[in-house]
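Hi there. Long-time user, first ticket. I'm pasting a complex I've been working with (about 386 residues overall). I'd like to know whether the download I got is complete or cut off, because the file seemed smaller than I expected. Thanks.
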Amino acid sequence: MKDRPFIVGGLVVFLVFVTTPVWRSLRTPKATLVAPEIKLPMQERECVAPVGYMRASHMQLLDEWRESVVRTGQRKYVAYNGKVYNKSLTETCLSACHGSRQEFCDRCHNYSGVSQLNCWNCHSDAPQVARKSP
Amino acid sequence: MKMTRKRFLQLSGLSLIAAAAKNVVGGGAATSAITESTKATRWGMVIDLAKCRQKEGCNGCIKACHSAHNVPQFADRAHEVKWIWKQPFEDVFPFAQTQYSREINAGLPVLLMCNHCDDPPCTDVCPVNATWRTDEGVVTIDFHRCIGCRYCMAACPYGSRSFNWQDPRPAIPTVNPDFPTRTKGVVEKCNFCEERLAKRLAPLCVEACEEKALVFGDLEQPDSEIRKLLRSRFAVQRKPELGTGPSVYYLI
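Hi, the file is complete. Here it is re-exported in full:
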């Protein structure tokens, strides 16, 4: 029975080691997940599609727009509410409504880690370009 | 009524004739409908070289096009990007002159752009279908799809296509936000102002020319201004022997 302290001590060390993640999580401050604040358009209250659809599938919509304008020359989009829009990222989405790429697109994209986009390599994010040019 | 052999043969003959007649009438109607609907637009341009040279050193059309379409201005000629440009007569029409007229024409500038061929060789070679001829006869590029292989540049017999060897944005004097710029690694060229044609406006170069040296119109419309001009004046195309069918004509 001389080994009892070693066995108990070993068990304690083992238990402490195994439960380290629990202790560490207790020590670190609570992580807060705050969704980025997006600057909503001032003058427009409706998007080209319902907000839920746009939030989840705006990329598909933009892809369809691109495909139809560039490849078939269909430049008009009839929205769910019957309004007709010009299929244009810079003109319709950015200039007419959302205004700032940094305050609308980028905030959410950076937050969700989808920041490797190529749209703005060619399409102009009008306010920024206007600032750059003399 | 008892069917006789004679009566049976008469009836079968009549029904055969009726069936054949229906096919002939129906078929005829169908073909005429097709010829009606396939009568498409084919945009073309006539450049009057005499009028074009009236004002020496005039580059109004080139400036209008390049600034509106965000064409970069690189100092290094190896990186040059051009949609519409000028080249000496002898380079453009080496065979449209005699040994005696050579001196008169030498060095005279000729305005060049994409010919928007009827049968464009550049579109045939594209491995990703990034360039094609539209139903209106405009040879166009999908910059999203271009992979920058430059096959089209090799195939174009007119040197109408340019490659973006580096990011073009820093080389654009003032960016026009209404038209996208291009990115490094894609091919670009004149698009016959497709974005303006969609709004039924003439190309910018035509609008910018004060001498009215450029005439734009539908080559498929026999009564259009461009067709009247091509009927009344002697016009040449660039390298017609290649069979590409350029839509840009020159009045020499």
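A couple of notes from our side: Strands of chain B lie at 43-48, 84-88, 109-113, 131-133, 139-141, 162-163, 187-188, 214-218, 235-236, 248-251. The first strand of chain B starts at residue 43 and ends at 48.
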